[in-house]
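Q: Hi! First time doing this. I have a protein sequence and I read that you can turn it into a structure. Is that right? Here it is:
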Amino acid sequence: MKELVGIAEQVAAKLIARKQTIAVAESSTGGLVSASLLAVPGASAYFLGGAVVYTRDARRVLMDISDEGMKDFRSSSEPYAQLLAEQMRTRFNSDWGLSETGAAGPTGNRYGDAAGHSCMAVAGPVSEVMTLETGNNDRFGNMQMFAATALKLLLRKLEG
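A: Yes, that's right. Below is the predicted 3D structure, encoded as structure tokens:
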């Protein structure tokens, strides 16, 4: 967790300096991204909200994305990660949206992705989506790696 908070401190400094805000949607990280950002004193200046979108019901209720709205999307995919990031940005009227969706392990998910598979996206003044494959089935290790990678992706966009 210490590494995650260290990255979050760098993200926080950039967001505060720019007077910008963020909203987060995460799945297999289980709230680690949000917790890391909230562990930094002064988080209320930049963190508008977050959601753990772990199930279909959570997607419908928290993100207002219907089953019909998912017709062209598959969970744990880059397009879905981008949709989540954009949806958070829009719903919270934040400068940035950050999302993560994947399979932490110890087994893969029902979509055929192996444990250690995660897609994450940043939506904002600049956007990016990426896939991470850790090749590992250690659930908590993957959750931490996914969260760190998502925060680093956001940090790169803030620095760029």
